[in-house]
Amino acid sequence: xxxxxxxIDSLESEAARFHQRFELVDAxxxxxxxxxxxxxxxxxxxxxxxxxxxxxxxxxxxxxxxLDGRVTALDGKVTVLDGKVDxxxxxxxxxxxHLGIADGARPGG
Length: 109
What we know:
- This protein is an all-alpha fold.
- It contains 1 helix and no strands.
- It has one helix spanning 5-99.
- 0% of the residues are buried.
């Protein structure tokens, strides 16, 4: 039994089309594989960046806590100085009254 020449040509054409489709699918699969690899690498880099940011935030929190302690200490010192200034103001007012220059009064009169 002979296979007609036309049928052989048809099978060869079909095989060529199949081969082209196969190469296209293979190229797309390679592209997708590379894309997944790139995404995976990007994800790893993003995780490292997030880890570094968290560490940086921890350090910043520590620094803020130290600065907060310093501000609290300075606030205490300012409160003490305010008390001293108030005491001195009372003394200055007493001296001014003694000299007759307090509350709008003029010396000597």
